[in-house]
Amino acid sequence: MSSGMDGAVNGWLQHRMVLDDLLALANDADVDYRPWDGAMSLGELAIHIVTSTYMFVKGIKKGEFDNPPTETDYQTIDDVRAIVQRYTDVTKEEMSTIFTYQMKGYILFNKVRAPGTYWFSNAIDHEIHHKGQLFTYVRMIGVKDVPNFTRQPDEI
User: Cβ(22)–Cβ(138) under 8 Å?
Assistant: First the structure.
C-alpha cells in the first residue's frame, strides 16, 4: 500500500472508530430502536455502514460491485459491536492491499461509470452520512454527551 493509501486508511479510521464510541453508548434495548416506521433500526444502521464500506472496497479490488454482505444474526448490542469490529478489521486489511491500478480502474455501479478513487471517496462519504444518522439515533435514545465526529490521529 502506498503512503497515500496509508493516509486514506487512517482518515477512514478516524471516522470508523467513532462508530465504536457511539455503539458504546447504546444498550441491548436500543438495538431495535427505530426513530420512525420503516427506518433502519440502530443495529441495522450500524451493520449497514460497515457492510457497505466493505462492499465498496472489495468492489474496487474486484473491478465490479456485488451486494453488501447480509448480517442478521444479532440480538444484543455486543453482537452488533462484534460484527462492526469484524468488518472494520477485514475492511482495513482489504484497503491495505489495494493497488494503484485498481484505484484508477473504472467501475460501473448504479449506472455511473467512475474510477476506484471516486468509489473509495463515495464509500467514506456514505459512511459519514450514516454515522451522522447514528448520532441522531443515539441522541434520541437519551444520550446527552456524544463523542466528536472523528477521533484524533493519536487515538486510532
Answer: yes
Give the model's pLDDT for residue 104.
96
129 is in an annotated binding site: no
In a domain, 154, yes or no: no
4 — alpha (psi -120 to 50), left (phi > 0) or beta?
Answer: alpha
Count the domains in the chain: 1
Q: Is 126 annotated as a binding residue?
A: yes
Q: Is 15 annotated as a binding residue?
A: no
Q: Which of 32, 64, 9 is nearest to 141 (CA)?
A: 32
pLDDT tens per residue across span 26-85: 999 999 999 999 999 999 999 999 999 999 999 999 999 999 999 999 999 999 999 999
Note down the domain range covering 50.
Answer: 3-146
The answer as to whether 156 is a domain residue is no
